[in-house]
Amino acid sequence: VDFAGNSLWPATIVESLASENFQLGDRRYWRKATILADCVTQLCAPNANGGVVTGRALVDDEFLKSVGASDEDLARYRCDPAFEPPRLLA
Questions:
Q1: Each residue's pLDDT tens digit, 66-83
Q2: Tell me: the pLDDT tens digits for 21-39?
Q3: To which H or E segment does residue 68 belong?
Q4: Nearest-CA neighbor of 49 among 84, 6, 1?
Q5: Strands, E, within the chain: which ranges?
Q6: Listed residue (4, 90, 1) closest to 46, CA to CA
Q7: Residue 7 Cα distances to 13, 23, 26, 50, 65, angstroms
Q8: Under the phi-then-psi rule, with left for phi > 0, alpha for psi from -120 to 50, and beta for the rest, what region is 50?
Q9: Cα(42)–Cα(54) distance, integer angstroms
Q10: How far apart, in whole angstroms, are the C-alpha atoms of residue 17 and residue 80?
Q11: Dihedral pair phi/psi, residue 8, rounded to 5°
Q12: Dihedral sign, Cα of residue 33, residue 57, residue 44, residue 81
């Protein structure tokens, strides 16, 4: 059986009930959870991103950029469209 294994990490706090319940800062510092969903979609479509990706620790925005997303594309994931949240992962 062929399979791929990766870890996927958010670069910022991701909007979720946990973020809200634990009051993890101002919402403008968060990104929408759809950024992770779009990463998983790309990981599950190896023909779309140039082949199978496996055995890697991936950071959401870096991975999307590696498969062709621009900074403009990533803006749609901001909870506050006018504010770029600071990265928590280097």
A1: 999 999 999 999 999 999
A2: 999 999 999 999 999 999 9
A3: none
A4: 6
A5: 7-9, 13-14, 30-31, 57-59
A6: 4
A7: 16, 25, 26, 19, 17
A8: left
A9: 12
A10: 17
A11: -125, 125
A12: positive
CA distance linking residue 60 with residue 38, whole number of Å: 9
Decide: 31 and 85 in contact? Cβ < 8 Å.
yes
What are the backbone angles phi and psi of residue 78, rounded to the nearest 5°?
Answer: -65, 140
Model-level pTM? 0.89
Two structure tokens written together for 4: 């791929």
| Residue type present at position 52 | V
Q: Tell me which amino acid residue 88 is.
A: L
Q: How far apart are CA 68 and CA 85, in angstroms?
A: 21
